[in-house]
Amino acid sequence: MTQLFRNPLPEEDPTNDSVLPVPLSFERKWxxxxxxxxxKGGPWGNxxxxxxxxxxxxxxxxxxxxxxxxxxxxxxxxxxxxxxxTAHKVLFQMSGRAILADEVGLGKTIEAGLVLKExxxxxxxxxxxxxxxxxxxxxxxRELNTKFGISAVAQKKAYSWDNSIVVASMDTAKRDPxxxxxxxxxxxxxxxxEAHKLKNKKSTNYLFVQQLRKKYCLLLTATPVxxxxxxxxxxxxxxxxxxxxNQGDFATNFVVDKRQPKNEVQLRGELxxxxxxxxxxxxxxxxTKRKVRNIPLTLSPEEKVLYDGVTAFVKDQYQEAGxxxxxxxxxxxxxxxxxxxxxxxxITLVNLIKKLPADSPKRERMMELLQTLRTVKTNTKAEKTMxxxxxxxEKVIVFTEYRATQEYLLQYFRDHGLQCVxxxxxxxxxxxxxxxxxxxxxxxxxxxxxxxxxxxxxQFCHHMINFDLPWNPMRVEQRIGRVxxxxxxxxxxxxxxxxxxxxxxxxxxxxxxxxxxxxxVIGGLDVILERFEKKESLEKSLYxxxxxxxxxxxxxxxxxxxxxxxxxxxxxxxxxxxxGA
Amino acid sequence: xxxxxxxxxxxxxxxxxxxxCSIIEVSPLHVTVKLSPRADRMLTxxxxxxxxxxxxxxxxxxxxxxxxFDPEKYDHLAAAAQAAPTSRQPRGAGDRTAxxxxxxxxxxxxxxxxADTGGTTTGGPLAGTAPPExxxxxxxxxxxxFFGFVPPLPRIGPGMIRREDVTYGSKRLGQIWSAARxxxxxLQLFEDPGSRQRMTxxxxxYEPWLAVCYKVEMSCDLKREELHFIGVSLTSGLIVPDFEAxxxxxxxxxxxxxxxxxxxxxxxxxxxxxxxxxxxxxKLALLDYTWAEEARERLRLELSIVDIYYEELLxxxxxEKRLAILEQYNRRRKETAWQYEPQIAVSAVTYGxxxxxxx
Lengths: 581, 359
Known about the structure:
Chain B: It holds the Pfam family YqhG. The complex is a heterodimer of chains A (581) and B (359). Chain A is an alpha/beta fold and 581 residues long.
């Protein structure tokens, strides 16, 4: 109960001269106090309060080494079985050093909270440092305080570090002068959220965390292995150096090439000693359904002209550049933006023109495109979206990839009398929170850009519209994960807008038909992608096909090819998980 | 061990009564109380306010709370009371009259808590979430937006009573216990001889006991605890392992009773403490230490992993790099020992001199 004793980092090896097999220390400050009270004739404590204190100690006494205590201290919280299991494992099998790698939306924060609470209740932890992305600081502080009754404080000023439980952003913590302060402290527990940012062992983040003095340590990440087994090795080495042997051993024992493991069973065994990964399909976690509505749209004649114009331009440029993909990224963006809004295209075009030398022949062509742009007066997608929102008459989140589209939609919806707010990655955390509050309370619509995807929880809303689609399925999944997560009580309805006869239509086909990703509650998307992307990222493959296809026919067959291999992988993964279950 | 709402209630009521708080309203489910200055200092975390009161000599204004022990039942009754038209009374301190089953004040206090964004209602809306309507204190929510979470601010004035749910595990209960320890840890008590002793001719002999309630914390990467309330007679050196039982139902008083005398001590306090510690040590020696062996085994294993890992790295030729690795290695070894090394720490929860009638 009361923390009477904190076990600090030992300075020297403890010497053992007592009759016990374990070093024993008696704290004797009380004797001085008693003697001084006797000398001065007081003050004396109240007997009734004294008995009360003893009863308090009795009720909070940790009577067993191996039993979770925290639940009886938590009244408002009912964790799911897999979360309790995880907490149990971290404490009793992993001794407090673990990677929590549940898939998105399974409540890693809750698990970390349970572990932390348990150690606090046991009095094994008093000083805690929690490092998270800036946008999540306040959310962590809130959750720890309201759900777990843990007095965590957000780091605001240098003196905030003196609090016993501090939540701070990694970017602040690793910088001077904060870094210096933190390296001089020692922490009973260190928790790092979004720990996949620590995969590079040369990065300042990594070196900093390595230097921190910590007893227990939790690393939270939904994507422990994104591309590279070496990254996984680094993450584990940060937690427990040597667990997978040294770099050489690891390479010979487990790695074929950087994306492909060998001795998978053995590797999995080693991993399970330091990492816990719960998947959506497993266990009694019941997610509501995902319902997908694909909304096909036909471009207005003016929009179609613009689309064709941009497409032709992009392809010509690619030919000219001799098929060099890396210099083409802004053009690919242009191609994708034209499926979103003319505002987005406009900004990119203008930026491109600004960069060109004054006498470039491309200039004229681009100016022409700008002229075409002017003829477009309406946005078919925006109109349809408006109609959808009016029809459902409930809270809805609209996702777009582009800031310009976001701005446009905000204006458009406001003009039509909808209450809406925006949410984007560039906002500071205060503003983000404010926007979320507004959306929860007053506004009907939130328009979010991709960057805003990470770390917002919107269980109270169960409609989402993909105004345009990212080409990276993981990012689509992240979008859906904002709404479709634990705590969502309704079926989630996902609307995908796609304009007929454009690249978008193909992408949607790929994501929906081939990976079936919108309805995939089973998870395993990361595995599918991991396997697919052994050679090249999916996004890149798509870019190539799009740029290189000379005809619609070629485009279709190229995409079909990708689609086939993806769908094979999907079946494979599904069979595996069924066989495993 | 967890406590039922009734048990929690008993603990809180004990504290409030022992610290002479004035109870405004009480039911099996809740208590509305105006804190005594003493309790206010311990519970409301307002050192600046109390500093101000001390320096200026202004009469202190203590805070009032409604502590709810069984929030679910309480809310249920409050809702029922609100639904009944008879309990529709203007809010205010003067108008609090008892209504069927639950005092009317409960209804008002409950409503206030509902509109209170920073409230500690467990499971309620997150702090800083402005409700769609209602008279939420805007300052609360702006602060909460900045800090993520703000402990409820004190409210002063008639009718400004904050509701708080006090259940097992709540911060308030923990705070009450530690406040109790702060004010109750160092004791000097005398057995009440009863009124007859005053009339008798001979003074009664009292034996001084030194008694300590020890908390034993056995920790490695895990932890177990025990409490031992042990007493030693300072005249005879006799040890009483369960001193609580010895005290039994004796009435104790802080004042030296009339017509008694205290036998001279043979032991000094320090010698008494030595005896207590010696006794406790011998008792602890009888315990099973498998847990410590297991922890040491885990430690050995972890250290061997660390050793093997760094052995390779320490073959580094570049001296500067080697030193950096060596430092890292030592740090990791230290951390591991810190995490697993078994140890026992003993500290005192409460302690004091008990003068008990000799038998």
